[in-house]
């Protein structure tokens, strides 16, 4: 009984440590600059919707938002099919050297990011992909592929072999069996991997900082960092907090939209493990 109470108390403390800062940022985004300093924990007297207008238009958040949205969606459109096909091969069709190749993918997850930034910069410059959205997209695909392959390989290994054998007996080729049978069965895992990759890419900062050198092509994390420096001099803290809310809302929306599928997949994976 005591252990259950302690676990419940710990979970409540963790939940409050996450929810309270989010609510504070949301409330602060509707305050004036004076209210932020005079009553940081109080409610705004009137809702300052113009904070969001200034952040969206004058601070350029709209441009940064669209850049991040375009890069994230393009990365997922390339990453998920490639990652699913590679993971399926590792899970169902082992070949000579497949363990070494899979180990190379795992090594990509452990390789320090800062060691790749300098050679990556010169490589993109030589390929004329520096400061381009499609160049950043290709980098993000390579950056996210090890995690995607690692997770989906384990998920494909849990799928019933009988489904694949039945499809092959019915006349499906290996490629058609993958696209028509195994890939739909792996949809929960693909959704979870897509959500986690989308959240990570949406908030990614160091690679974008090195690759994107012009203001017009900055992603949202770079735009928020620039907004922070600008608003410190202009003392427009309301617009800064409004920009933070704009950054958080898509992430919260995506997680809320797929929360049930994420929970079901995690629980199923834990039970199978």
Structure commentary:
By secondary structure, this protein is an all-alpha fold. 27% of the residues are buried. It is built from 14 helices and no strands. It has a single domain (63-235, 250-272), classed as Orthogonal Bundle (MetI-like fold). The chain starts with a helix and ends with a helix. It has helices spanning 2-28, 33-38, 50-58, 61-92, 98-110, 114-126, 133-157, 161-169, 174-185, 187-202, 206-211, 220-234, 237-257, 259-272. The model is unreliable at 269-273 (pLDDT under 50). It is globular and about 70 Å long.
Topology of helices and strands:
Elements: H1 2-28, H2 33-38, H3 50-58, H4 61-92, H5 98-110, H6 114-126, H7 133-157, H8 161-169, H9 174-185, H10 187-202, H11 206-211, H12 220-234, H13 237-257, H14 259-272
Question: Nutshell version of this structure?
Answer:
With 273 residues, this protein is mostly helical. It has 14 helices and no strands.
Biggest sheet character: none
In percent, how much strand structure appears in the residues?
Answer: under 5%
Relative helix content:
over 70%
Query: Secondary-structure element order, as H and E?
Result: HHHHHHHHHHHHHH
Q: In total, how many domains does the architecture comprise?
A: 1
CATH architecture assignment: Orthogonal Bundle
- The low-confidence runs, each spanning 5 or more residues with pLDDT under 50, are 269-273
